[in-house]
Amino acid sequence: MSITPKVGADAAIFDDDGRILLMQRADDRRWCLPCGWLEPNESPEEAVVREAWEETGLNVEAVELVGVFTRRPDPAWGLFSMVAICFLCQVAGGELTLSHEGLALGYFHLNEVPAWHGIHENYARHAYRLWQKRALFAQAGQT
Questions:
Q1: How far is CA 125 from each of CA 23, 37, 122, rounded to the nearest angstrom?
Q2: pTM for the whole thing?
Q3: Pick from 90, 91, 35, 31: which is nearest to 58 by CA?
Q4: Domain 6-142 is in which class?
Q5: Which phi and psi (to 5°) does residue 81 adopt?
Q6: Cα 36 to chain centroid, rounded
Q7: In three state form, how does the secondary structure of 69-97 look?
Q8: What is the pLDDT of residues 122-142, one digit of tens each?
C-alpha cells in the first residue's frame, strides 16, 4: 500500500506596508497563512480563493504562484507527505472575519510573528520577496 501526499493551497496576502495576513490556528495556537487542502476536482487556484474566504472573510484573487513546497513525513506532522502550493493573492473585497478554525487574524511584519505553524515562515518569506519585486515594479511604472 502506498500513501499519496496531501495537497494544500496557501494564500499570501500583504497589505500596503508589506505585512502578511496570518491566522492563529485553534489546534496549535501558532500562526499560518490562510490555507487548506484541495477538495476533489478543485484546482489549486480555486482552493486558495475558497480557503481565504472561509478563514478570513476576504475575497481574493490568486495573482502569481509563489512556489510549490514539500513537507516529508515526520513524527510531528504525520505519516504522509504534504505538497503546499502557495499563491500571492490580492484582496478584491470582503470584510476581515475570523472563522471557527482560528483564534485570531492579524497582519504582521515577518520578523514580528510570535510563533509560526509548521513551515509557513518559509512560504511567507518566499512570498514577501515576490511581493517586494512586484511593488518595486509597480512603483517604477508610476515614476
A1: 16, 21, 5
A2: 0.91
A3: 91
A4: alpha beta
A5: -80, 160
A6: 9
A7: EEECCECCCECCCEEEEEEEEEEEEECCC
A8: 999 999 999 999 988 777 766
Contact 37, 10 (CB under 8 A): no
- The sign of the torsion formed by the CA atoms of 58, 38, 24, 107 equals negative
Burial (CB count within 10 angstroms: exposed 0-12, middle 13-18, buried 19+), residue 121: middle
- How many degrees, rounded to 5, is the angle at CA 15 between CA 9 and CA 18? 95
pLDDT in tens, 40-90: 999 999 999 999 999 999 999 999 999 999 988 777 766 778 899 999 999
Name the residue ranges covered by the structural domains of the chain: 6-142
Give CA–CA dist 17/23, Å, rounded: 18
